[in-house]
Amino acid sequence: MPILSASKLSLSYSDSLIYSGISLDVAEKARIGMVGPNGAGKTSLIRMIIGDIPPDSGKIYLPENIKIGYVPQIAPLSTSKTLRDEIKTAFSELTSLESEIEDCLAKLSNSSPSSKDILETEYASLIERYDSQGGYSYLNALDRMVTGIGLSPDTLDNPAHLASGGERTRAALAKALLANPDLLILDEPTNYLDLKGLSWLERLLNHYSSAFIVVSHDRHFLDKVVTNIWELDHEKLNTYIGNYSKYRVLKGEQALWQKRSYERQQEFIAKEEAFIRKYKAGQRAAEAKGRARRLERLERLENVDRDTEININGISINRTSQTILKTENLKIGFATESDSKILLDIPDLQLQRGSRTAIIGDNGSGKTTFLQTILGAIPEFTGSVTLDSKVDLGYFCQQSDPGPEEASVYESLLTAKNIPLDAVRPYLARFLFRGDDVFQTVNELSGGERSRLALARLLINQPNFLVMDEPTTHLDIATREALEQVLLAYEGTILFVSHDRHLLSLLSQQIWTIENKKLRIFDGSFDELDLEHKEDTIKSSQTSKVRYRNTANPPKRTPPRPRTADLEREINELESRLKEIELQLEKNSDHLDLESISGLGKEHVKIAETLEKKWIEWAK
């Protein structure tokens, strides 16, 4: 029996239809991922489910005893409480009991002999209720939760109105989880979590005993935690069984079937129209009129929109020297009149032309501060940063400038660089601004469209060194994939901060990790780093084997046994092949290559099963 269901929901804003005819069911232990482009109505559907907004039509059925926990994208702001106080409201029944127990104790201390027995019985009952509801352990549960989600004790004791949006969102997530709801709803919970926080949330949801719905654009996260996908697109809700990768395969097959059905129908319509034109005034005029009436009643199928690839081929860049960035004796920090504080100790770095380097680390570890120092926005505490004289720097982040708000897309590009007018539309078409799209004003664009325009404005100036700070946060999946196409085709040097594991796996060739106020260099990709971290987790009693390069005392790696080395090599090869297949599935889904999609899907399942067996064998 579903714990929540809805029938024929519809919703409009002004004259714009968001969706219509949506019906859904949430089973008792459902693990649902909701996807769709920005603006498709995902958050609005959630707000209807929790009762924040009414549907224009349709009904939602929710049993009275079902408790829903909801974490919005932007957590509400408290003006007086600390974050710890906000989180503790998840235990409002227990804190209320604590007050009742204190009152009862106060009465007992001043009680008369005649009332003492009654008060002692009341006190014992209160203590029993308190104990049965976890009163003696809830603070420990709170501490474990906030540690896992990445909130420090100092942050917890600060007033909530001084907390960042990310800190408030993580506090709201902790509060919702601690309330142990029957249905947990998370609206883009991964946006403000670092890699440790993401791993923690995945483990928690994988062991979560109740139902949950999670809205996310993080493909890696969806693959790990969900078993059903709800897709909101083109005013409809489509449901798929499986994780995100399985959904992409099924959607590709469905799109191909839709395309072929559309093409068959178009052929039929063309033949019928040709017959009608030929015989409408002849001996077979009655038959022609009958066919014309049938055509008028025919339900027309929609074609599949296939053109979603950004093309930046032909965007040239100037060549730099082999080493484009060097640091010497660099320390990052700040000084005041009475004190000085070092935030990061940086080993001497050299960034090579054409390299793709990712910077990872916990929230608050100094990643953005490090980037700002490289960019010259923050002065070095000690030491130096040297950029090659031939470097043309480009900086991209979620706040990158898409141009004047009242300007059109066409005009916005020209404010970035004055290029020939006949070159503007072809260039914008590479970034999927076609036809009348170029006449939209910047303030009319969606978040993804603004990012595409900001990227177009950046690349028109031909930077040969691209620095990015969390470029995919808040982007929908289609825009993320478009950005990935741009970065894979980009011929310059890339240095970027990200917690998007799909982007890290796809792009990184070297990793700089920031931890304990130090930067360390890993010579390898994110997948290789992730594999070696898994090895360390499994063999936690052994010396760390992560291939860090450090100027001080690099950890020594214990030589593996011959068979272990063979298994590690096989695991590496299998994981690399899985990544290749996933990328090819995305590409072939866009191009509607059914035979390839089916073959790759079967190979993906087979390799995943083999990889699982290899990990079990390796762990022995």
Walkthrough of the structure:
The chain is an alpha/beta fold and 620 residues long. It is built from 20 helices and 20 strands. It is globular and about 115 Å long. Helix 10 (244-279) runs parallel beside helix 19, helix 13 packs parallel to helix 15 and helix 15 runs parallel beside helix 16 (477-489). The model is unreliable at 551-562 (pLDDT under 50). The strands form 4 sheets. It has a 7-stranded mixed beta sheet, sandwiched between helices. The two termini are 42 Å apart.
Q: In percent, how helical is the residue content?
A: 40-55%
Beginning-to-end CA distance, first to last residue: 42 Å
Q: For the report, how would you describe the main beta sheet? A: 7 strands, mixed
As an assembly, this protein is single chain
Give the tags.
single chain, 620 residues, six-stranded mixed β-sheet, 20 strands
Compile the SSE list and pairings.
Blueprint: E1 4-13, E2 16-26, E3 31-35, H1 42-49, E4 57-61, E5 68-71, H2 83-88, H3 92-109, H4 113-132, H5 138-149, H6 153-156, H7 165-178, E6 183-187, H8 195-206, E7 211-215, H9 219-225, E8 228-233, E9 236-241, H10 244-279, H11 285-297, E10 323-335, E11 340-345, E12 350-352, E13 356-361, H12 367-374, E14 382-387, E15 393-397, H13 409-416, H14 424-430, H15 447-459, E16 465-469, H16 477-489, E17 493-497, H17 501-507, E18 510-515, E19 518-522, H18 526-538, E20 548-549, H19 562-591, H20 594-619
Helix pairs in contact: 3-4, 5-7, 10-11, 10-19, 10-20, 13-15, 15-16, 19-20
